[in-house]
Design goal:
homotetramer; 193 residues; alpha/beta; Rossmann fold; 7-stranded mixed β-sheet; 6 helices; globular
Chain lengths: 193, 193, 193, 193
């Protein structure tokens, strides 16, 4: 059985909503899913470390704050030094996503940090492979139903307005998140074969 | 007299339109402006090298192709090694902008490359300081009249649809470009004082 | 009087030693220096926020952990959102440095994060402008007395072995740090004129 | 039969020497190897495009010039837009390496650009997973026989002195390159299974 873990931090609920959409894609593709939420102190439970160590793929998720990965998630990233020397995550698959208030909001810095972390752990990085489906009519770029409307490939980027998570990110972003979860499972199954 | 040069590459005219808007801001702020267009072979004329060497500030501009600075502009960047050893650009001001078809389109990689080039040349990097003025109503993020609608700070990001340059990028992006040109002049005057 | 603050995190003392060398350069160049150490919880005192707000230039310093800025320093970076809306740091000068165990150790990610933070705050980024003075004899690259032996320009990079801070980083790295501190003062005086 | 292509640019022969070491690892691990050299104009032959399209894994290699990927290699990267729409490289494995004169020399920017390109093409990125084997005695970091002496993980970094390619990069860097080639084959075999 393919096992995928999503380890994420969410400050106001928007990143959690994206994490849930990625998770829905993971389950829909027939994998076992572990949702692991990083606390405001950057910590996860010992049992959750075991779940990560036993996963075929780990998806990292965090909001972008002040232009890079949120502080609590960085505290978590630092704590993965416990598996660095043991190389326990070596050759696992990895992927990442980030949400912020604006379109770019420098989310690429966050994805870059996640890819670097994965590389330091010896992991294999799975890109976001869906093309942007926005029409090219003026003013239509980034419309609500677009897949990959922001145009991100190293990982998944979503954008949330300053409203409650039930209203944002939009349906296209959440659909892209779901497709990203499925892609990770497809890759994990192929990698495990 | 404060002198600002904009050295840019443009494949289809959209980046040139942005360069012209930045240039309008530069002139409006009372500086001498040099517009220097990099050819498809990455070259500029000898006289243009002299203009760059005599400038108080240099603004780099290029489209983002396949996730980083366009090839012709990178050829130009490499050719600045001629001023690297002489340190002729040391302590000049620098800034950068990039345009692409999608919102992110990994334009941050391009700005990052430009900031790294400027740093290797010992230059001082001027950020894009305007906040995003999009409303936070759902679906309004990134509307056409927004200043800094993409949410970029290391430099200026604009987005152009796949239509003729007269129709895209939109008015908000061009206004942001103009403000960026003015900011560069304000900084150059203060730096020269 | 020109005022420069160094706000830094140090886990084992090596980054603190670099911060002190940068600080020595700042004082030697005739500026008022504030050394502000970020706690393991990412916090600084209220009075220290006032010192930062009153500085002409702010130098960010942190170790690179797992390929990007240390968690505690990222917690501090997030907390600068309190000055983001007020734009209190707009047009101040900024610079950065990072230390880690290996030569690259992905320290460029950390400097990149710092430059992005500075840009979001509307600051002006001062590069590390000293060229690498290593000889080009085989095996001599990165020898102990070299200035900028690692070859870093966006900011200052130093490397510390896994020994006590009194023995590492080496003299060349510390000398480079001192020169970086002086450069920041020279820039701040010119900017304030 | 597993097929791996190394597509690279080399200005003075040092990057080519690294490419050959990576290639030796690829062959030693039992894969078919294609060495494809990008010209100064950024071009490769039509038959070479076919070889790339038929490969299980593609390794990108280039020197770092002025802080990011060499101009000719960027011209090549831009020309991969011909396979972007067709998604011919989607789900292939990718990896990258860069060489420069100094230890960092901002080579991480080059690796980052390569990982972004691979992601835009929908590829899966294979990290450099060997830990740095330098001793932690003061002054021994980065000694000539070290594996991964520079401490790079997103891809392979090597450093060459300003001497003929037969004398530099050193044996440790070339050994690391060979191990990187082997790792790519191991991953490609597993991925193809």
């Amino acid at each position: 059985m393919t096992t995928v873990s999503i380890v994420y931090h969410s400050g106001y609920g928007h990143t959690e909503k994206v994490a849930e959409a990625v998770g829905a894609g993971v389950k829909d593709a027939g994998a076992t899913l572990h949702m692991i939420k990083v606390g405001a102190d950057g910590k996860i439970a010992d049992a959750e470390w075991e779940l990560l160590n036993a996963s075929d793929a780990i998806i990292f998720g965090a909001p972008t704050y002040m232009g890079s990965v949120s502080g609590p998630f960085k505290m978590f990233m630092d704590s993965t030094s416990r598996v660095w020397m043991s190389r326990e995550w070596k050759d696992k698959l990895a992927g990442g996503f980030s949400n912020s208030l604006s379109m770019s909001g420098d989310k690429l810095t966050t994805l870059f940090q996640m890819a670097i972390l994965a590389s330091q752990q010896g992991m294999i990085w799975v890109s976001q492979a869906e093309l942007n489906t926005s029409t090219s009519e003026p003013g239509k770029s980034g419309d609500a139903a677009s897949i990959n409307r922001i145009g991100s490939y190293l990982g998944l980027m979503t954008q949330a307005d300053n409203v409650a998570p039930q209203d944002s990110p939009n349906s296209g972003d959440l659909k892209t998140a779901e497709m990203f979860g499925k892609r990770m499972v497809t890759a994990a199954k192929r990698w495990a074969a």
